[in-house]
Amino acid sequence: MENSKNFVIDFDSTFTQVEALDVLAEISLQNSSKRDEIIQEIKDVTDLGMEGKISFRESLKRRIEVLEAHKDDLPELIDRLSSRVSASFKRNKEFITKNKENIFILSNGFKDFIVPIVAHYGIKPDHVYANDFTYDDEGKIVGFNEENLLSSNNGKPKQIESLKLEGEVFVIGDGYNDYEIKAAGLAKEFYAFTENIRRESVIEKADHVAPSFDEILYKNKMEDRALSYPKNRIKVLLLENVHEDGVRRMTTEGYDVEVYPAGLSEDELAEKIKDVSILGIRSKTQVTKKVLDNAKRLHAIGAFCIGTNQIDLPECQKKGIAVFNAPFSNTRSVVELAIAEIILLMRNLPDKIASMHSGKWDKSANSSFEVRGKKLGIIGYGNIGAQLSILAEAMGLDVYYYDLEERLPLGNTTKCESLDELLQLADIITLHVDGRPENKNMISSAEFDKMKEGVVFLNLSRGHVVDVAALKENLLSGKLRGSAVDVFPEEPMSNKHEFVSELRGTPNTMLTPHIGGSTLEAQENIAQFVPTKIMEYINTGSTANSVNFPNLVLPKLVDAHRFIHIHMNEPGIMAKINNVLADHQINIVGQYLKTNEMIGYVITDINKDYNKEVMADLKAISGTIRFRVLY
Ligand SMILES: NC(=O)c1ccc[n+]([C@@H]2O[C@H](COP(=O)([O-])OP(=O)(O)OC[C@H]3O[C@@H](n4cnc5c(N)ncnc54)[C@H](O)[C@@H]3O)[C@@H](O)[C@H]2O)c1
């Protein structure tokens, strides 16, 4: 660090997440019947002092009086506080140790516990300015050294003044007394530190609000900082009532998160997107070219759902925006519904239930069968088909499947060599293919003709894969014992629109409103999966499971910087990248490359010591869409 920048850091609620005397009270009063009351009193008095509403000395005196603490309580206090050092200071331990000559702890707390805690970060005892406890003969804490400047009102400015630090002073703290140093003209800037607590009266006075130590280091262009870019500068916009778990994950990561319960129109979103780095949507928000043209800072879109038709994916690629969704989060939900429907249909229950509602009591075993020992034919042995086979086998079904691709049979399932083979042998047929255009009407009259008499038929995949007229005909003729249909070629736009289908009123048929995957558990899974993928992408560059980017799973970045270069997939770009790296004599630790038809994605891990001009040259390569560096 240049000698000119000194960082003066407050301890309570800044270096650590908590107020040390609150924690000491929890320890010293653990056997007291008035514990909760006294702890609350201490917290209230601390706040009054922090907000400048009572004098500091008064607040300190009142707290020590009620504390009833002892020297023997200190080891436990030090232990507890060490585990509660603020995340961004923990993260920047290397920076602190390296720059210890210019780092000072200035606290109205007590050296007795501060010195051992900050020593782990390389901060020397003579760089810790704080109070000292006084003890009685039995070791009980009875007061504080009143000679110490920091025990007096306005103690922090007095202490800084006495130090006569060379160079600029930057004060970092959460309290009014930290601001007083700047107010006295003894610091260049005061950063209100809000990682643990936000005090509006303090924020008002600050030169800059710092939600993390990373922000301060970034703003001061300090090298050796832990993060290339502070997370609080990453603005996240979450629309359409994204599940609260998803919001929590993004907030905990340190992002600046804005949540909107509804969707936004194209124009509204085009306006709002301008400073957004990560957008989270569900199925209703249309992310069009117009929106994307305004999205100058957008790095990633999370579709908190399965489909991504609502997003202009090619345009996202051209602009270097990675899109993630949650394709497997509701697999189990679809499987469970299929299992339930198979059982209901084999017992002829849809009709029986309807009869009961119209007053008809039909107690008989006719047309009711167990599923045990029946042949289940699964068409499409992907995520859903394969998981269904496991559950179905566990219920005693004899499982067969057919897939276009070579898929490994799970358990005792039997692979069919052709669709016809499956159609001819199965008692129950269930469709779990994807929605590729060639699958349109893949089950039509000819396929129904090949099926056994009295077969049960389910479609929980995509509406257009079944010829609905043929299905209806086979239900009415009795060739099919019954059917369950969850997806339709035309589905209502919303719950306000009528469901129109020729399948309404067909015998022994369960019609459900495309809810195979709609469970609260699936929503929770989505809320976990999508943010995880986005954070991996932001933090490491990994594009695993991205819908539109070449998928690269990357090793952890250890002791290196990572260059991420996204470019149009044009001949010769890779050579240009490597030429630039060679010209700057960059020491490459690892390089990873993947392309798709439109873009190329190149990751280069390099030794930390390099000429920073290389970055401008990499950005200048023609065809470059985006470049960023990670560490
Ligand atoms: N009802 C719902 O709410 C709901 C929820 C989730 C998924 N889905 C749908 O379920 C279907 C399956 O989902 P998944 O996650 O298992 O998909 P997947 O991509 O993992 O599996 C689809 C499988 O079908 C195979 N396939 C495609 N066309 C085929 C054909 N003509 N003949 C034989 N096999 C074929 C593929 O090779 C693949 O193995 C998808 O259509 C999906 O949209 C519906």
Describe this structure in words.
By secondary structure, the protein is an alpha/beta fold. The protein is built from 25 helices and 24 strands. The strands form five sheets. It has a seven-stranded parallel sheet, with helices on both faces. The chain has a six-stranded parallel sheet with strand order 3-2-1-6-7-8, with helices on both faces. Helix 2 runs antiparallel to helix 3, helix 2 (20-28) crosses helix 5 and helix 17 packs across helix 19. The protein is elongated and about 100 Å long. The protein starts with a strand and ends with a strand. Nicotinamide-adenine-dinucleotide is lined by residues 306, 330-331, 334, 379-385, 402-405, 407, 432-435, 439, 442, 460-462, 486-487, 514, 516-517.
Question: Which structural class is indicated by helix and strand composition?
Answer: alpha/beta
Q: Over all CA atoms, what is the radius of gyration?
A: 33 Å
State the low-pLDDT regions, or none: none
Average pLDDT confidence is 95
Strand content: 15-25%
Query: Percentage of helical residues?
Result: 25-40%
| First-last Cα distance | 18 Å
* Shape type: elongated
- Biggest beta sheet attributes: 7 strands, parallel
Strand order of the largest sheet: 16-15-14-17-18-19-20
The set of bound ligands, ions and cofactors reads: nicotinamide-adenine-dinucleotide
How many extended strands? 24
Number of helices: 25
